[in-house]
Amino acid sequence: MAKTTLTVLFYLPLLAQSTILRLPCQTFAEFTVFHMGKALKGHVIKTERDVDDIGCTRKCVEHHKCRSYNLNVQTKECQLNERRHGENGTQLVDAPGWLYKSTDYSKKLIGATCRALNPCPSHILCRDTCTSPFYECVHCDENHHELHCDIPLDKNDCEKNPCQNGKCVDEHASYFCLCDPGFTGRNCESVTDINECESLPCFNGGTCRNDVNRFQCNCLAGYSGTHCEEDINECASIPCQNGATCIDRVNEYTCNCLPGYTGKRCQTDVNECASSPCRNGATCIDEVNRYSCNCVPGYTGQQCQTDFNECASSPCRNGATCVDEVNRYSCNCVPGYTGQQCLTDIDECASSPCPNGATCVDEVNRYSCNCVPGYTGQQCQTEINECASTPCQNGATCVNRINKYSCSCLPGYMGQECQTDIYECASSPCQNGGTCVDRINGYTCTCVAGYTGQHCQTARDYVGCYKDSRTRALPHVRGLDVSAGHLTANCIQACFASNQAYAGLQAGRQCFCGTSYDRYGIDGDSSCSSQCRDSTGMYCGGGWRNSVYKTGKILNTYKCLLLVKYIF
Q1: What pLDDT does 16 receive?
Q2: Are 246 and 266 in contact (CB under 8 A)?
Q3: What pLDDT does 2 receive?
Q4: 439-448 contact pairs (CB < 8 A, 24+)
Q5: CA–CA dist 328, 338 (Å, integer)
Q6: Are the CB atoms for 305 and 324 separated by under 8 Å?
Q7: What is this structure's pTM?
Q8: Highest mean pLDDT among 128-142, 146-160, 258-272, 304-318
Q9: In sequence order, what are the residues at sequence separation of 6 or more whose Cβ sits closer than 8 angstroms to the Cβ of residue 442?
Q10: Strand, helix or coil at 348?
Q11: What pLDDT, on a 0 to 100 scale, did the predictor assign at position 258?
Q12: pLDDT in tens, 336-351
């Protein structure tokens, strides 16, 4: 395709002051359109976003390293390249939707921007500026807009389908045609044959043939692919046999054979018997990378070269003496062994010499017995007396058993050897604060004041259930800690210590003391049904009812008697 030269005028900031023009914008560059649908890959130095063709041109001119650019006309992505097509072997690649341009940076002095470019419509005033884009179109009319006042409002330049053989892309105040393969021109109206071989697409010595809208590579032998880029792997068909390693080469292969094989594909087994290595009438057997000889009787060795000594291999075992004979041998066995080679140990356990369940262990020319627990002796004939060490304690009787013993304990003892005194107080048999004293095979209870019985279960001096009131029949209040337990016994003891003859328990938790108790009269025992808070199984009065007990304190009444006598 012939190159089309497009001169784009673009102005840079002031590089050299012109006394003629007196403007800060003096340089432009000539850009050449190479291909639509092409791009230069691998040399992008910077990417700009959301710019059009003029904007991408400006970005390239402004960048000191830019020599060409790729522009995606749809996404408006601008790629600045540091090289041009054809420099140092650079090639264009197919890239639908892209536009490629390059610059030769021919710089010239020009006049003002408006005079040089005349970018605005003839009926619109153009005014130079010294900032990008270095001009402005002043006062667009009501039917146009954008930078050049050339974009009709709401106008779609692709409505009339101007692209004859391609796709139309609408732009600001213009349109752009993406031509079908084989067409070119602004409206894709021209038929052209692009030389696809120009980019040297065929590798590895392949010859390029240009066709319409395509190319074809004729590859040298050993290569394939669209670009002759693939070295044909001649090993892919696995030509090497018998475990050989295939080495791929250009248009050929070689096989590294394993030892014992030969041939182009290592297909032939080398015959190691060809040299007749076996002697003395032996038969040669060919194997892979080796041979073996079947010797006739009386000969030995790898090649059957040695007259065979039947005793040389020490066929007789277990200390037997070997006697060499013609093509045979015999063995003189030591005591305890038998058989042709004296391999068999005579079983001395065959007669079952070990009694009482013992295990017999056969040894050379003897045996031993492994006794089961409880027996001893060379043949395990003696039962062991486990009571011989008197293991039972505290007068217990020892009973001997097989590999164990048992002890018959006297009352009050327990344990395997009757070593433990049974603690009869463990069940807390003593009630109402009584103290338990452990004995041999028994216990005794030491009762607190007011209780008696084997378990201190009986209140010694219970009087009855009596009524109470706010002025109290038993006026002395004892503040006892119910959580300490044994409320009844503690109350009686406390009142006794206070020199009070009677103790009264009320509402399951209160203790009262006094010298009298019947001020408000007696009541039935069912009224004193509040269980003691200490959970002893006793009842400690009820609501305004006293369970009354004698404390055992004897009142000093003789003074009263003398007083009465004196009065009368």
Answers
A1: 31
A2: no
A3: 38
A4: 439/412, 440/412, 441/410, 441/411, 441/412, 442/412, 448/486, 448/489, 448/490, 448/492, 448/493
A5: 18
A6: no
A7: 0.29
A8: 258-272
A9: 412, 424
A10: helix
A11: 93
A12: 888 888 988 888 888 8
What tokens does 517 get? 């108790």
Six-digit token string for 351: 């007669």
CA dist 181 and 37 (Å) reads 9
Helix (H) or strand (E) holding 545: strand 545-550
On whether the CB atoms of residues 239 and 246 are closer than 8 A, the answer is yes
Whole-number CA gyration radius for the chain: 63
Tokens 């509402």 — which residue? 507
Give yes or no for residue 566 having a pLDDT over 90. no
Question: What per-residue string of b and e applies to 61-93 under the rule 16 or more CB within 10 Å gives b?
Answer: beeeebbbbbbbbeebbbbbbebbbeeeebebe
Q: DSSP label at 564?
A: H
Nearest residue to 78 via CA among 92, 64, 98: 98
In a 3-state reduction of DSSP, which class is residue 317? coil
CA angle 238, 241, 242 (to 5 degrees): 135
H-run or E-run covering 299: strand 299-300
Token representation of residue 144: 């146009």
**Which tokens is 56 given?**
């991408």
pLDDT tens track for 429-485: 887 778 899 888 889 998 765 667 788 766 668 899 999 999 999 998 888 777 667
CA dist., res. 249 & res. 240, Å (int): 14
Cis peptide before 353 (omega within 30 of 0): no
16 is written with which tokens?
């050299």
The encoded tokens of residue 437 equal 């004293």
Give the tens place of pLDDT for each residue, 102-118. 865 433 333 456 765 67
The pLDDT value recorded for residue 5 is 38
In Å, how far are 192, 247, 345 from 320, measured between CA atoms? 106, 60, 12
d(CA 40, CA 232): 30
Say if residues 38 and 98 touch (Cβ distance below 8 Å): yes
